[in-house]
Write a structure and sequence with these properties.
317 residues, alpha/beta, Spore Coat Polysaccharide Biosynthesis Protein SpsA, Chain A, 2 domains, nine-stranded mixed beta sheet, two-stranded antiparallel sheet, 12 helices, globular
């Protein structure tokens, strides 16, 4: 098995150096390591560097990295650090084609989880499984992988065409996960594989622009791939989620607890932008449909198995 580690960076710096050092010290090192620089030329010391010369967004940068490598795809953010046996644990868990999600722990010294992948909410959006909780195994596979760190087999990636570059930043992992589900690709959680993550190092924990993009892109991914029953309730389910988050925030808990007022407005703007784009993504849905091997009923079962956990939503975001 050949493992290609692809690290996308926009700013380089100490966090990237720490990530690369952790890759170099693996008990079972990746067979190749490629750093993709989505920016003007940056001084990066790495075995291989792909300089894109401009900020092209995460999705396009990651696709370029995958195209320049040959092995199974280990995608990493530049603000991650791998435990010494992480790659070895992922390789040991390998069962053929699929998505292999390591456990991701916050790099703040708290010992708490960032996530073990993402869980579906009824409107097709996702929330981090285990976020801010104890570092213990979480049963079941995620609904969506986390773009911070994941191993994906190359054949499945190529079958669906990788990330959709129109997403730019945010929800490209959700969109790809939904399209992989529709092709019947299995998802696995690999708890022994540990990655530490400096959450929010790139975009901050919460900002108006981040929230706008998340809401817009969630609608895009949903229209493209959700079961029809979930798609029919997309708008009321999304508004109900806003209400739930606002209610939890009123008690200083939940995903909305740290959201500033301008980000709340940005959520509505992003939702409106996503709804405006429905015809485009509905057209993509019709193009994808002939290739689906998982029907709506089976897709609903997958979403239920990979649902978000209430205890994670109740914790401060």
């Amino acid at each position: 098995m050949i493992v290609s580690a692809i690290v996308v960076t926009h700013r380089g710096g100490p966090l990237l150096a720490d990530c690369l050092a952790s890759l170099a010290s693996q008990s079972r090192p990746p067979d190749e390591v490629l750093v993709v620089v989505s920016n003007q030329s940056l001084p990066v010391e790495a075995p291989r560097v792909l300089q894109l010369g401009e900020n092209v967004g995460y999705a396009r940068a990651a696709n370029a990295g995958v195209a320049a490598t040959t092995g199974e795809i280990l995608l990493l953010n530049d603000d991650t650090r791998l435990d010494r046996d992480c790659v070895a644990a992922l390789v040991a868990a390998w069962r053929g084609p699929g998505v292999y999600q390591p456990r991701i722990r916050l790099a703040d010294g708290s010992g708490r989880l960032d996530n073990t992948g993402l869980g579906f909410l009824p409107d097709g959006s996702v929330w981090a499984r285990g976020r801010n909780g104890p570092d213990v195994p979480i049963p079941g596979a995620p609904g969506s992988f986390s773009g911070a760190a994941v191993l994906i087999d190359r054949a499945s990636w190529q079958t669906v065409g990788g990330f959709d570059e129109r997403f730019g930043n945010f929800c490209e992992d959700l969109d790809l996960s939904l399209r992989l589900h529709r092709r019947g690709v299995p998802f696995h959680t690999v708890h022994p594989a540990l990655v530490e993550h400096h959450l929010g190092a790139s975009w901050g924990r919460v900002s108006a622009e981040k929230v706008r993009l998340l809401e817009r892109n969630h609608v895009r991914a949903s229209v493209r791939s959700l079961p029809a029953a979930a798609l029919l309730t997309l708008l009321p389910a999304t508004l109900a989620r806003y209400g739930l988050f606002a209610g939890l925030a009123a008690t200083s808990r939940g995903p909305g607890a740290r959201v500033p007022n301008d980000a709340r407005t940005a959520a509505l703007v992003g939702l409106a932008e996503g709804l405006r784009d429905v015809p485009t993504w509905w057209s993509d849905r019709q193009a994808d449909r002939p290739h689906w091997t998982v029907d709506d009923r089976a897709m609903l079962r997958r979403m239920w198995r990979g649902r978000a956990r209430w205890e994670d939503l109740r914790r401060a975001g």
